[in-house]
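My current task is to audit a protein record that another person submitted. Thanks in advance; the entry in question is below:
***
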Amino acid sequence: MIGDSVYSPPDQSSNLCITMEERSQCSEHAEDLDPTDLENDLDLDNDCRGLLEIASNRETPFAADCESNEESQSQPKCLMPPATGMEFESYDDAYSYYNSYARELGFAIRVKSSWTKRNSKEKRGAVLCCNCEGFKMVKEANTRRKETRTGCQAMIRLRLIDFDRWKVDEVKLLHNHSFDPERAHNSKSHKKTSTKRKPEPPVDVQVRTIKLYKTPAIDTPNSSGETSHRNHDHLHCSRRLEIRGAFSALQDFFFRIQLTNPNFLYLMDLGDDGSLRNVFWIDPRARAAYSHFADVVVFDTTCLSDTYELPLVAFVGINHHGDSILLGCGLVADQSYETYVWLFRAWLTCMLGRPPQTFITEQCKAMQSAVSEVFPRAHHRLSLTHVLQSIFRSVVGLQDSEAFRLALNRVVYSFLKVEEFEVAWEEMILRFGLTNHETIQRLFQDREQWAPVYLKDTFLAGELIFRMGNAAAPFIFSGYVHRGTSLTEFLQGYESFLDTNYTSEALRDSESSKLIPELKTAHPYESQMAKVFTKEIFKRFQEEVSAMSLCFGVTQVHSNGPASSYVVKERDGEKVREFEVIYETSAAAQVRCFCVCGGFSFNGYLCRHVLLLLSQNGLEEVPSQYILQRWRKDVNRLYVADFGSGSVDIINPVQWCEHLHRRAMQVVEQGLRSKEHCAVALEAFKESVNKVNLLTTE
């Protein structure tokens, strides 16, 4: 398995975290790595490069010691068993975890074997086994010492992967003997833990760890923007996912999915007492889809309202049909900065450290701080729909006022210049007596993150008009998740939900590729884009072409070398509005346009004002730079994640299986495109089977 599950061992006071400070830093380390230092059997498994680390809070002066809490002491430990894919920050952490697990069950461990890098003393792999492994040597058979070895096979195999992380790639849990806790506690491995103290980490490690853990513990902003100085011990010990039977239900669900989908990933954040705090999971198709649609991602937290039983969150993208696609799910214990940082880092690492271009959330100070920490280069924007809903919910006495609704919509959508918007906003709050309204003031302070007049340099892929947070259910789970939906009900319908969405996308792909849309005008732009855009996006573009008839009076008002400024007039009912368009030509005769309405940034296709100007300047086709690949119907989008480097450990059958499965699934995905593709894929499989069979007969 590939990084399937990660647990934080309670004995190590560990939190699950992802140290993805900046992908560029990781890239620099990757360039410095000399592959000749490694032997052939250490080829890196990069299917989820930089996946996870277990970072110990003991490395910071802010770590909580929950074991000192009486309530924690009264609860039994529940250390999770080792699993293939676990990753640790160091060999010592991995050893301590397995040793703690062994002590809890009542057996001891030892190092069966270990190996180092070529021409170096640096350890690169080890096998930790039960102390009862093997049998006495012949020369020891007549000694008086009691026989304790029974040939037990229980063990874990560790190997060093990139960036000094250690990964479990083989696990055997079954023992052939009974456990003896008293004898095990007196064994060498457990005595060593009680006396050995971990040395102080280097300064750079301390700084990195403080950055991950200090802020949520000491200075956590709450939803109103105030700072909370809660005791870290209490915070660290009390955060847990309050869903009865959540851990076992999720484990069963994840294991079942992985039987048919080995590249399915899930991550679990466990507290110091072994309790489940946060969970994140993602299927390989979502990871592959993100490579095509990484420009805009919406973080939906609708289910975190008090009216929902399930604390579900979702990362949502927008596909080439303008539909929502699921890019990962999570269950969270609370809405704290610490939780959001863990969740965002988990998601980002599964996406190989590639942040979205635009990340859209609701307004929440803890969430905004976490976005700044994890996605510092992304354009963080607030959902306009959520902002408007917040305003309507908070203005007591005005919810049913049609006058207020019309005034708010006019202020938000009608103004093209910042100064006009801000003056109109001030007039509105004075008119309705909202000058000292807390929600109105807080939203206005963040206006540059949600008001359209400020967002003309932000690509939104149509999200500006997208209604996030349906009153009945999260928009992507509409019809599947309701206020009373339990975890069991959600998990039972999850795969059906995915299948429905994948089938719907396939049908829309087929419809877009085969059907010729009906044209409404004789304009060449319309006929050109009918051959390029998917059906839904073409319908939206078609509206802009049709609306060109409402535009007139193109006038050049300024010229400066290759750049010129024009004014395009548009009839809006009885009014006439003016839109400024910048038109520029380069030495290579390439055209660049920008309209004050921001249509291209908001929607991903040219607005009516630019189209009219291009037409009047003699361009018979939409310039290629304004035809985004994300909307094209002729692009072959292969939804099979291929995050590997191509290297396969020649002595590790697990990696053989993973590598072969990825390659085979690519053929399967292509074969699903049509009957013809299916026939070719089947023929390819038959040919491959025949070639493999030849090897067995030779």
Notes: Confidence is low (pLDDT under 50) at residues 1-78, 194-237, 466-474. The chain is about 40% helix and 15% strand.
